[in-house]
């Protein structure tokens, strides 16, 4: 029995050779954002152990010891692994006898040590053992995701064509989609801007066969899990591609076209509306347009709307992402690390990546509005300067004391739009907003600010499920006094201390007081200095949206 799915739509560039990309001429800005392709390897699921005979590499999953000292003190080899071990002279037992105590979830035995080679009908097959976690440990989405990444890493190491993963799990549960998503995500290679020394991860890999003991109890669920996992991988890949793109490729126009493709490839579940400068002016978006005046390309206000296939809507939610496609700081120009400021669109990237996923998995009961006010924060003769007064679309006036606190200005109008135009019941917003949040929480955890305890609990649960770490931060209303201007309703910065809290309080002014709203600062985890964009936020948003219709 075999379960296979190839139906997921991908945002690829079939006619774009490696190393060829669209960039500026002297007079015309880039109009197209090239995107990476999904790795071409397929995934099959079977309960037939003989399938491993066709594999170049077979990875056997084995439970490790309990950290509490409970359970077996010797390797727990069961199911298909035990059958194979008996057939080939206890090769698995011998491999892990000395390493059993260090066998954790996702760790590999036979990776750094010589891999046993089994000769079978003239064919050689490499064998290694991978830890599945502790005995009797609940199979969580987090552990399955870790295994997916570990299997992909092993495929990259050996560069095999056909790989089998033998696992004593029931794959007819939702956590298997996490394995698939992380497997493909770990194989992601961004070679868009290279012409030489181009390296593709596991470039020879064609097939991963998962051999499971009892995973074929519901083939339909397995096929759905594979499709869902691929959808997640596609969305995360899009998120990374947007953040990794340089400024001379990514601008408001090229991002808007990428957003339109998300809608076009959704199978009809997502529609798009792209507002230009005149339409934004008609809506009174003075805060957003104040920042956009410095951009080379005209502003593009992106609004994607997802509606469930059944047409039944229990809740309407809004997801707003900060879309600063490059941030020089404006006239309060940045004096260090400006080259990293392409990641200031991390919120927008996560929102579009989540929209890509939602369009493919099509959750019922929820209508979702994905909103991005896209522009750059640049310096020219039109750009805003310190002391300017901007008027947001809800009528509030804002004194600009620092042009490098521009993201909250663009999102002010985006939040008003989500509240009043899209009429969302609840709203979350993601942004790479403050260095202050990074000082507090580091580079692995995002901060969550909300007055609504129910929404805070929802986001906490989502964070635990997806593995994207978050921490609820205080909304100290006393700090509102620090945002009051002498000549306008608000000023865009407060004092040095408590800057992340003040930013959240500023944004709260643009959402109705009685409406659930959360500000999520992803400045830390959106970027990894060694690897680049992490794709952070796409899974969190997707999981939160999916739960709203239940």
Automatic annotation (TrEMBL):
<dbReference type="InterPro" id="IPR043472">
    <property type="entry name" value="Macro_dom-like"/>
</dbReference>
<feature type="domain" description="Cytosol aminopeptidase">
    <location>
        <begin position="402"/>
        <end position="409"/>
    </location>
</feature>
<keyword id="KW-0378">Hydrolase</keyword>
<dbReference type="GO" id="GO:0006508">
    <property type="term" value="P:proteolysis"/>
</dbReference>
<dbReference type="Pfam" id="PF00883">
    <property type="entry name" value="Peptidase_M17"/>
</dbReference>
<keyword id="KW-0031">Aminopeptidase</keyword>
<keyword id="KW-0645">Protease</keyword>
<dbReference type="InterPro" id="IPR000819">
    <property type="entry name" value="Peptidase_M17_C"/>
</dbReference>
<protein>
    <recommendedName>
        <fullName>Cytosol aminopeptidase domain-containing protein</fullName>
    </recommendedName>
</protein>
<comment type="similarity">
    <text>Belongs to the peptidase M17 family.</text>
</comment>
<dbReference type="InterPro" id="IPR023042">
    <property type="entry name" value="Peptidase_M17_leu_NH2_pept"/>
</dbReference>
<dbReference type="InterPro" id="IPR011356">
    <property type="entry name" value="Leucine_aapep/pepB"/>
</dbReference>
<dbReference type="GO" id="GO:0030145">
    <property type="term" value="F:manganese ion binding"/>
</dbReference>
<dbReference type="GO" id="GO:0070006">
    <property type="term" value="F:metalloaminopeptidase activity"/>
</dbReference>
<dbReference type="InterPro" id="IPR008283">
    <property type="entry name" value="Peptidase_M17_N"/>
</dbReference>
<dbReference type="Pfam" id="PF02789">
    <property type="entry name" value="Peptidase_M17_N"/>
</dbReference>
<dbReference type="GO" id="GO:0005737">
    <property type="term" value="C:cytoplasm"/>
</dbReference>
